[in-house]
Amino acid sequence: MTAVSATLAPEDRSPAAARQIVHSAVTDAGLDHLLDEALLLTTELVTNALVHGGTAVDLQVEVDDDRLRVEVSDRGDGRVLMGATPGDDREGGRGIWLVDALSSAWGTRNSPAGKTVWFELGKPGPEGAPPRPASGAPARRDLAFLLGLAPDLEQRLGPERLVSELLARVVEGLHLEHGWVVARGPADPDWSVFVAYDDAPGPDPEAVCRGLADDWPTVPFPGADGAVLGALVLGRLPGDADDFALVRLVAERVGVILRDEHAKVVARRTRGSLTLLAEAGEMFAGTLDVKLTATLAARLTVPRLATWAAVWTLFGRTPALEAVAHADESLVESMRAHLAGPQTRAWLETQMRQGVLAQPPAPKSLSEICGIDPRVGGECFVLPLTARGRLLGLILVGGDVGRTFVVDDLALLADLSRTAALALDNARLYEEQTAIAEGLQSWLLPRDLPEVTGCEFGARYSAGGEGTEVGGDFYDVFPLPGGGCGIAIGDVCGKGAEAAAITGIAREVLRMLVRDGASPQIALSRLNETLLGLGDRGRLCTVVLGTVRRRGDGIAVRFSSAGHPPPVHVAADPVGGGRVRFVGTSGSLLGVLSDIDVSDDEVQLAPGESLVLYTDGVTERRGEAGEFFGEDNLLTTLRAAHAATASELAGVVETACRHFGASGAPRDDLAVLVVQAAAPTL
């Protein structure tokens, strides 16, 4: 057995000295097949001991015929830092995990004097592997040593660790004193030091990028696009042309590693971008609410692409702040207060007037925009929300102080803003259409039901579909000049503006005729003539029209039905429960034939009794299996609720239909009108 020991000072050259000791011990013993792992693990443990222990390091190397044992001891507090987990993407802090992965055995010892980490290597060399040069040969200038890590070992090392090992080998093998690899990031045009051999002061990466680092020997290597990706910077010039050729080969190897890593990063970012855009599209498709759409746009941006985000809409004359998101939820309200202020509004209006939003995004200062403390808000960008040629809003995204946005992030933000803008425009159009439909519908229904002595009214209306079209169902209650009220309920075929127009005509024609004294029969005949006179613009229509007048202690309802479902008379049964029956004759449909058959019916309502009028949206409401609610369910519902007030009875019918109906918005409109004789006052 051969044993070598050394004490290494706490300085940046100690890892290199440790590598030299281990290299000599391994090659002298003829264990060259263990050299790669031995150098990697020694570098890692000595570096960790210096960084975390901060003291001198004792190195003990023992070599026999088929085994290598290395011990690294420091005089720190005795703690072994495990660092990141093996699945962590970070390069640093994985020394113990690397030891566990590469060594045949390892362990630690703790004592008041410090800690020791040791490892053993003893696996046999690969069959057929070419022997390394003897110790007397120039092994450190050997190309296989400089570039030839075992493939299985390279696969277990990340790009940073692999490049660091190649840099250490070329610096030590050619006695170049120092070395650095500077390169630009996968999505960042700025250059930075990727790895360094030691902590010695090095060149300015930007100077290397511009070719101005004349004091440092530099060997550039290209990226996949042909542009310079980075450079290998040396502490001194190689000794001769052969050494320089070896340096060029190492630089090319480093370039290949970084190009592959950049390609992987770009592929991951592309997959992530596509996933984010797909997720955004799916989430935006699930809502047609402007406020929720703006909130989703902000939340999808934070924290993936920015620290905070704010969304304004421009539907009015001035920008309206719709949503604010921040990676730190506790800062949302303070951020909202600053962004909602007059200074921010004035700044945004200036940007729009000057057409700045039509230009590529340029970094802004949040303190310049809203006056916030410069130490709180960092760089930010304003992106337009434009869809169908119209500026709908703005999204402001920003990061913490010191955070910068890379080109790929800005491109993804631009794609996300376009997706959000289209969703925002769809939500705006939907809300506008819904507001128009609700406004028209409100004009086709009575605002309030009149109060009539001895009589109570109750009504319910529910539009079918998504609420963006005016329904064809209507009801009406209106006072008559001689006392009493006129009542009407009907159903115009179809939906939308044309159906709304016919509904308005029918409602006003019936009101005018009944108020002028026409009987329900005559009024329906005149309405039929009106609909036929509209020609192709006319629509089919069913109506129940009647008058309600006091008679004794109850009320009399005289009515006529034109193709409409028959009303239901609801009364109390003398032996308990409710007594319900259909009354009247349906008659002919309006808007089809010039001659119609409309009966004249009357029903007497005693105090507490009701007459329930409804549209086919009640009886034809479909359940989950496609079955109709039907007349039997209607009678059963009314029988159970016979003692309810007029308003309650209308609500009971609506609720029963809603619970019976299939999931989703009902396809047909629903209208219920209840006329009830008031119960005597006790």
Topology:
Blueprint: E1 2-8, H1 14-28, H2 35-53, E2 57-63, E3 68-74, H3 95-102, E4 105-111, E5 114-121, H4 143-147, H5 151-156, H6 159-173, E6 179-184, E7 191-196, H7 205-209, E8 218-222, E9 228-234, H8 241-285, H9 290-301, E10 308-313, E11 320-326, H10 332-339, H11 342-353, E12 364-365, H12 366-370, E13 379-387, E14 390-398, H13 407-443, E15 455-462, E16 473-479, E17 485-492, H14 496-515, H15 520-533, E18 541-551, E19 554-562, E20 568-572, E21 578-582, E22 601-605, E23 610-614, H16 616-619, H17 630-640, H18 646-660, E24 670-677
Antiparallel strand pairs: 1-2, 2-3, 3-5, 4-5, 6-7, 6-9, 8-9, 10-11, 10-14, 12-13, 13-14, 15-24, 16-17, 17-18, 18-19, 19-22, 20-21, 20-23, 23-24
Give me some keywords for this one:
single chain, 682 residues, alpha+beta, 5-stranded antiparallel β-sheet
Strand line-up across the major sheet: 1-2-3-5-4
- Let me know the largest β-sheet: 5 strands, antiparallel
The average pLDDT is 83
Residue runs with pLDDT of under 50 for 5 or more positions: 81-93, 124-140
Shape: elongated
Percent range of helical residues? 25-40%
Compute the CA-based radius of gyration. 43 Å
Strand content: 15-25%
Structural class: alpha+beta
Tally of alpha and pi helices = 18
**Could you tell me how far the N terminus lies from the C terminus, measured between alpha carbons in angstroms?**
116 Å
The tally of beta strands, per DSSP, is 24
Explain what you see.
It is a single chain. The chain has 682 residues and is an alpha+beta fold. It has a five-stranded antiparallel sheet with strand order 1-2-3-5-4, covered by helices on one side. Helix 9 (290-301) packs antiparallel against helix 13 (407-443). It is elongated, with a radius of gyration of 43 Å. The relative contact order is 0.06. Mean pLDDT is 83; it is low at 81-93 and 124-140.
